[in-house]
Each structure stands twice: as structure tokens, then as C-alpha cells.
């Protein structure tokens, strides 16, 4: 019989409430190591002005009064002489909610990187703009940038990533917009064009960013006047730039820097010329982005490498919202590395893609969004990538998960951390590149690394994973529920078995399409969630929930129904997919819940769809007024053909009483990525099925778990 090192953890426990009083002292603990896994003593750890130091075993304890922590967010800095600093951010919920001793939050073991004479720490972010909904938001959302306070407001947008970018020796992003004080002139003949005010450059510099790549499909949105304005403002700023210019020669010219006595060259490209005239890429006759043809990439990389310069390539290509790069992108990036480039960073899909160690050089195939106003959920999970190079050779990478919350980049915590890191881990694993855990971050090391890291269940040697044993996690269910959350499983480990006593019970694997729907991070980082809609005058935020510490409540009255749901249509749309809408409700009076889907047809304009597309009834459910949490799960299939996207909404009608409040928690729209099975081995047939956030069962599960032993995870 198979043996397990068993660790029982209750997942998404229904009716859980934190036992930590607001004025109690809580302890955050952890251990710090160097890259050879030797304990690091005397590391200075700071949180909210309070400082402790690690002991000889690398262990630290940070005591604090919970009520003194804003929005239940803990951001710790780690500083030690002759080591690179590190920043890690956690929510109270993810540190304390599932701990046996609720007053002790444990951070996973962390590694600090030693400084070296020519070891350089680089930081990269994805796509950046501050246009459109930053000034004119949809749906009555609050304005983020006001004309009279543009600089102050622009800095507020980047304030939460400033600590992360500032600790690097050199930081870079993709500036996917032109720069102008006012609209530069005629638009290029395309459906979407951007220009951002010059204050964006000051805000980026203030946040610790040193360089921007202009090699993208929005750097020529307003043709020559916009290009001239962009170059002029960048030349007046503190930012280095390359990837575009007033002619082809300027566009293909590298930006050169000396970093720690090492010569660096930064190159940027866009992967296609564009269909209109003039093209978006620079020629001898007009300006634009650097065209990233194979010939141009090899020539420009070769020129820099021939002068003994560490050459960094940034490339804008592949398909929007895809899981993987196109073959053209992959070949061009690998050819650039073959030619001598040290590192390749790519963007354009607006969602993250995997990372790959290719000949021990790192490729990031898509960084996703960094500062962007896209309001559909798939585009809001991204990352900062730290890369350490030793005289141009890859030494180490660290992934900082980000959540673009209300259009502001913020450290991803809780379910958002899980979502970011699970996706990157699985997409990278396909390319034989393994991401390990360091605190709340992910780490990639060279395949030739000799470091050995031992833990309770795995041994990692030379970047290869040796199975020693699995950890068993027990599932619990709400009364009447068929679904269990997996968000509290470690993101870096994979589901390996689902253990069931009853062979007649089957399960399937699913992902949540809604961000922030557990409401744990709703008030954090001074940036409310913008993905759900409801009448703000009727909403309050509760400090308790069905599965955590928070929920929302909507005030109801007998005279008028109210509606809540997904604010925008999903751009990443899977047709004819089994779906489940899941939520927990609490109410004193009986209500009727009518579930609908609304579609946006293939060629339909966005606001026409909001206004004129019919609502299709999925199901009506009546809730009795029990004043305790009740689970509702509604199954349907996503539209099969003819639609670009769709969204979900729930209409609430009070059946008795004059007024009351409806509390809502864990509102999820789950897309199922496997058919029901009773096999103990999970059916990982697709990339999406390898990133499960939920298990759905074929029948209502007993709350005492007599028909479910749980799940096992392994490396």
C-alpha cells in the first residue's frame, strides 16, 4: 500500500471565522538561507517600521498588533550586508486563516542572493500605458487620473510596485503607448490607439524604472507627430529607451548602459510590420517601431555582442490571450540567444505565458500586463521578473506575482498569488523549466546548479525533482455542495491523486473566471475591485465570511430588485464548456435569485452588447431566510457559437419583508476543464486542467467527508 507523509489541512472550511482579535499580538515566522541552503543570520527584517533580525539558524519571529496593519496586508523587507534586498507581501488571510495556531503565520523558506563584483540584478515588467479608463472609466468607477493632479495620480498608480522595482540595479518595462500632452493628430488606421500624458514617464522613473522598450504595435499610433512627441519627451526624461525611432536606423539602435562595470545593450522589436500604410515599423521614409524580422534581430544582436556587450532582447509578438508563444516568436527569441544575446523578454499577449531555460539562458514568453486598463479577468494576473546575471551569464531568476487590481499593479496575495504562480509553474514545466518556492515568490536556477534543498516531502538536486512522498489534504464541503476549493494547496506542487471511498462518485477539474470573488483582498492597496458590478449605494463590506474574513452585503427592499454579477464580457472565451456558478449567501428573509448569461456577438460593439443583448435565463433559485450561510451551485454550458464573449449576472428579488441585507461570499464562475472521472489519477489532458482551483463532484458531498478522503499533492 502506498505510504504518505500526511498533513491534514481543511480547505475552504465553510463557516470559518478568524480567531485573531484585532488587538492581539500575532507572530509572522520564517527562515532565511543563502543559495547553498546555509542559514542566514542577522538579516534585518522590517514590517511597518518594526525591525527584527534572524538568528543563527536563519529563523525570525516578527510580532505585531494586528489592528496596526492596514487592510490586513503584511509587506516585509529583508536586508543583509553583501546580499541583494528582497521584498515579500502577504495577506493576513493566507498566513493565518489555515494555521492550526491562528496567531502564528508561517512564511515558506526564503533564499537571499549574495552580491558579487559584477553580478547584476535586473527587473522586468510587462505592458504599460495610462490612457483610456484611467481618465474616463466605465460603469461609474472612480477616476484614477485627474487632469489637474496628473503627476500625483500617476505616482499613486505605481506606488505599490515602487519597493519592488527600486531594489534592482536596473529595471525595464514595455511602454505600449505614445507620449503627448494632448492628442497628437490623426490616428493610424486601426481600431485601438493609445497616447499617455508625459507624467507617466516621471511616475515610472519615481517607481525605480530605468528603461522602456518601444518595440511594440502602439508606438506609432499617431504616426509621425506622435512619434516625434514620444521621442522628445523621452529624451527629456530620466528613462533610457530603444525599439523605435524616426527612421529604421534609429529604431534598430540599441540603448547602451554601464551597470556595475559591465557593458549592457538593450534592444526592442515588434514582430510584424502591420497591414496599413504607413507601416507601424520604421523605414527609411518614416518612423515607427523596430521590425523584429529574423534578419534585423540577428544583425542588431550580432553588432552588440561583437563589441562584448551583454545584450538584452525585448520582443513584442505572438497572439493575444494565448497560453503559448507562436512558432515565429519562439524561433526568433531562440535565434537571438544563439547569436549571443543573454536574455529574452517578450510581451503582447496581455496574459502570462511560461518561462524557458534554453541553453541555460532565460526566455520569458509573455510578461502580461503591468500597468494597463483591461477590465476582463484573464489580463489582470502578471508578474515582475528579477534576473541575476554574472557577466552576462544567467545565475538566477525570481518571480514576483502581481495582480493588476483596479488597473493598478499590486503584489498578488491569497487566491491571486495561487492563480499567477500555478499558471506560470505549469506553463513552464511543459518546457522542462521548473519553478521552486522562495517565500511567496518563485525561483528558477540554472540546470547545472548543484544546490540541494531538502524539505518534508521532496528533494531538489540539480534542478531535478525526486519524488519522496506525497502530502494528503482533506477536503470539506458546505451543506448541499458538490465543489471544493483548491486555492490553499501549495501552488508549486501538483495534484497527484484524488482519494474517494465511493467508486460511484466522480470528480472534475475547474478554474475560476472571476478575480477577487472571495472578497478577502477587496479593500487592499487603496484600489477596489472593478471586476464585479452592483449598486455601490447598496453595498457594504463585512468583516466576516463563509470561508474567510470578508464578504459583501447588498441592501434589498421590497419595491425594487437589484442585480450583481460580472462587470465586463470575458475576452478569453471557451465555447461549449461545462460551467458552474457558485456562491454562498446569508439572508434573514426569503429571496429569489435569477441567474442569467448575456452574450456579445462576434462583430458586436461593446456598449451595444451591454445595452441591447438579451439576457438568457439559466435558472431561478429561492432561498429561505435562515440567517446562516447557504451554498448555491448552478450548472450551465457556455455559448457554443456566434459569440465573442459573455458575462454572468444574478437578479435578486426580495420575497417577504420590507428590507433586508443579502450577504455574498465566494462568488465564482467555474469553467470545467475535464470530464467527470473516478480515476484516482487526475486527468491532466490540457494546460488548463493542470491549473485547477476547484474540484467538482458528481453528487452532493457529505459534510463529514465520509465519501471523500481528500487529495494528494506531489512535486
Note the main sheet. 10 strands, mixed
Low-confidence stretches: 1-19, 449-469
- Radius of gyration, taken over Cα atoms and rounded to an integer in Å: 25 Å
How would you sum up the global shape?
A: globular
The tally of beta strands, per DSSP, is: 48
Number of domains: 3
> What is the level 1 CATH name of the largest domain?
Alpha Beta
Approximately how much helix is present in the residues? 10-25%
Examine the secondary-structure arrangement and name the CATH architecture of the largest domain: 4-Layer Sandwich
Within CATH, the superfamily of the largest domain carries the name Metallo-dependent phosphatases
**Number of helix segments?**
10
Overall average pLDDT: 90
Fill in the CATH topology of the largest domain: Purple Acid Phosphatase, chain A, domain 2
Share of residues in strands = 35-45%
First and last CA, distance? 20 Å
Structural class by sheet pairing and helices: mainly beta
Protein name: Capsule synthesis protein, CapA
Keywords: Signal
Signal peptide: 1-22
Pfam family, one: PGA_cap
Please outline the helices and strands:
Elements: E1 5-6, E2 25-33, E3 44-47, E4 50-53, E5 59-65, E6 73-79, E7 86-91, H1 92-96, E8 104-106, E9 110-111, E10 119-128, H2 150-158, H3 162-166, E11 170-175, E12 178-179, E13 195-196, H4 199-206, E14 211-213, H5 223-236, E15 240-242, E16 244-245, H6 248-251, E17 255-259, E18 262-270, E19 288-289, H7 294-306, E20 310-316, H8 327-338, E21 343-347, E22 355-358, E23 361-364, E24 369-371, E25 381-390, E26 393-405, E27 408-411, H9 414-429, E28 436-438, E29 441-444, E30 452-454, E31 458-461, E32 464-467, E33 471-473, E34 483-485, E35 494-499, E36 507-512, E37 532-533, E38 539-542, E39 551-557, E40 562-566, E41 578-586, E42 591-601, H10 606-612, E43 615-623, E44 630-637, E45 643-654, E46 659-672, E47 694-697, E48 710-714
Parallel strand pairs: 1-33, 2-8, 2-9, 10-11, 10-24, 11-14, 12-13, 14-15, 18-20, 20-21, 21-23
Antiparallel strand pairs: 2-5, 3-4, 3-6, 6-7, 10-25, 16-19, 17-18, 22-23, 25-26, 26-27, 26-29, 28-29, 30-31, 31-32, 33-48, 34-47, 35-48, 36-46, 36-47, 37-40, 38-39, 39-46, 40-45, 41-44, 41-46, 42-43, 42-45
Helix pairs in contact: 2-4
Keywords: Signal
InterPro entries: Capsule_synth_CapA, CarboxyPept-like_regulatory, CW_Biosynth-Accessory, Metallo-depent_PP-like
Family: Belongs to the CapA family.
Amino acid at each position: 500500500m502506498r505510504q504518505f507523509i500526511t498533513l491534514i489541512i481543511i480547505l475552504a472550511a465553510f463557516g470559518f471565522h478568524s480567531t485573531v482579535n484585532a488587538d492581539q499580538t500575532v507572530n509572522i515566522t520564517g527562515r532565511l538561507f543563502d543559495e547553498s541552503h546555509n542559514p542566514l543570520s542577522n538579516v534585518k527584517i522590517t514590517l511597518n517600521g518594526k525591525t527584527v533580525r534572524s538568528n543563527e539558524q536563519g529563523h525570525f519571529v516578527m510580532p505585531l498588533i494586528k489592528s496596526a496593519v492596514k487592510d490586513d496586508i503584511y509587506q516585509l523587507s529583508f536586508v543583509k550586508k553583501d546580499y541583494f534586498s528582497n521584498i515579500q507581501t502577504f495577506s493576513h488571510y493566507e498566513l493565518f486563516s489555515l494555521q492550526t495556531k491562528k496567531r502564528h503565520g508561517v512564511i515558506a523558506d526564503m533564499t537571499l542572493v549574495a552580491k558579487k563584483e559584477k553580478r547584476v540584478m535586473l527587473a522586468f515588467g510587462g505592458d504599460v500605458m495610462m490612457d483610456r479608463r484611467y481618465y474616463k472609466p466605465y460603469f461609474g468607477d472612480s477616476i484614477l487620473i485627474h487632469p489637474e493632479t496628473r503627476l500625483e495620480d500617476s505616482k499613486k498608480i505605481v506606488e505599490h510596485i515602487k519597493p519592488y522595482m527600486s531594489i534592482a540595479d536596473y529595471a525595464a518595462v514595455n511602454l505600449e503607448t505614445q507620449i503627448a500632452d494632448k492628442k497628437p493628430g490623426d490616428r493610424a488606421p486601426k481600431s485601438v490607439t493609445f497616447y499617455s500624458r508625459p507624467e507617466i514617464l516621471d511616475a515610472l522613473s519615481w517607481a525605480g524604472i530605468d528603461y522602456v522598450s518601444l518595440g511594440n504595435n502602439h508606438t506609432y499610433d499617431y504616426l509621425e507627430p506622435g512619434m516625434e512627441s514620444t521621442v522628445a519627451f523621452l529624451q527629456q526624461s530620466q528613462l533610457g529607451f530603444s525599439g523605435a525611432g524616426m527612421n529604421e536606423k534609429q529604431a534598430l539602435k540599441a540603448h547602451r548602459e554601464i551597470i556595475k562595470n559591465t557593458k549592457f545593450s538593450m534592444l526592442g522589436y515588434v514582430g510584424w510590420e502591420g497591414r496599413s500604410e504607413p507601416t507601424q515599423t520604421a523605414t527609411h521614409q518614416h518612423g515607427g517601431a523596430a521590425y523584429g524580422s529574423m534578419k534585423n534581430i540577428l544583425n542588431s544582436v550580432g553588432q552588440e555582442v561583437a563589441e562584448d556587450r551583454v545584450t538584452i532582447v525585448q520582443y513584442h509578438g505572438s497572439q493575444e490571450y494565448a497560453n503559448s508563444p507562436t512558432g515565429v516568436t519562439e524561433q526568433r527569441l531562440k535565434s537571438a540567444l544563439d547569436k549571443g544575446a543573454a536574455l529574452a523578454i517578450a510581451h503582447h499577449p496581455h496574459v502570462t505565458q511560461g518561462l524557458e531555460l534554453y541553453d541555460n539562458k532565460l526566455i520569458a514568453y509573455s510578461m502580461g500586463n503591468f500597468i494597463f486598463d483591461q477590465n476582463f479577468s484573464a489580463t489582470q494576473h502578471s508578474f515582475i521578473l528579477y534576473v541575476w546575471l554574472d557577466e552576462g551569464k544567467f545565475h538566477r531568476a525570481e518571480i514576483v506575482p502581481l495582480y493588476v487590481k483596479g488597473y493598478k499593479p499590486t503584489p498578488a496575495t491569497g487566491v491571486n498569488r495561487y492563480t499567477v504562480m500555478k499558471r506560470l509553474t505549469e506553463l513552464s514545466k511543459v518546457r522542462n523549466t521548473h519553478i521552486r518556492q522562495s517565500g511567496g515568490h518563485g525561483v528558477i536556477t540554472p540546470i547545472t546548479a548543484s544546490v540541494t534543498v531538502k524539505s518534508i516531502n521532496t528533494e531538489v538536486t540539480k534542478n531535478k525533482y525526486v519524488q519522496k512522498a506525497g502530502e494528503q489534504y482533506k477536503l470539506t464541503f458546505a451543506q448541499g455542495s458538490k465543489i471544493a476549493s483548491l486555492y490553499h494547496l501549495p501552488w508549486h506542487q501538483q495534484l497527484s491523486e484524488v482519494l474517494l471511498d465511493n467508486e460511484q462518485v466522480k470528480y472534475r477539474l475547474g478554474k475560476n473566471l472571476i478575480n477577487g470573488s472571495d472578497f478577502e483582498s477587496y479593500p487592499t492597496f487603496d484600489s477596489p475591485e472593478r471586476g464585479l458590478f452592483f449598486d455601490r449605494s447598496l453595498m457594504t463590506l463585512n468583516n466576516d465570511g463563509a470561508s474567510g474574513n470578508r464578504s459583501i452585503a447588498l441592501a434589498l427592499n421590497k419595491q425594487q430588485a437589484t442585480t450583481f454579477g460580472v462587470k465586463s464580457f470575458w475576452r478569453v472565451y471557451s465555447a461549449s464548456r461545462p460551467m458552474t456558478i457558485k456562491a454562498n449567501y446569508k439572508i434573514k428573509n426569503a429571496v429569489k435569485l435569477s441567474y442569467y448569461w448575456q452574450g456579445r456577438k462576434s462583430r458586436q460593439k461593446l456598449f451595444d452588447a451591454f445595452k441591447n443583448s438579451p439576457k438568457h435565463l439559466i435558472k431561478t433559485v429561492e432561498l429561505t431566510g435562515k440567517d446562516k450561510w447557504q451554498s448555491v451551485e448552478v450548472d450551465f454550458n457556455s455559448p457554443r457559437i456566434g459569440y465573442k464573449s459573455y458575462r454572468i449576472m444574478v437578479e435578486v428579488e426580495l420575497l417577504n419583508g420590507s428590507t433586508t441585507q443579502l450577504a455574498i461570499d465566494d462568488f465564482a464562475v467555474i469553467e470545467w476543464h475535464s470530464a467527470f472521472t473516478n480515476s484516482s489519477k487526475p486527468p491532466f489532458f490540457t494546460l488548463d486542467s493542470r491549473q485547477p482551483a476547484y474540484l467538482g463532484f458528481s453528487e452532493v458531498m457529505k459534510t463529514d467527508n465520509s465519501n471523500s478522503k481528500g487529495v494528494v499533492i506531489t512535486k
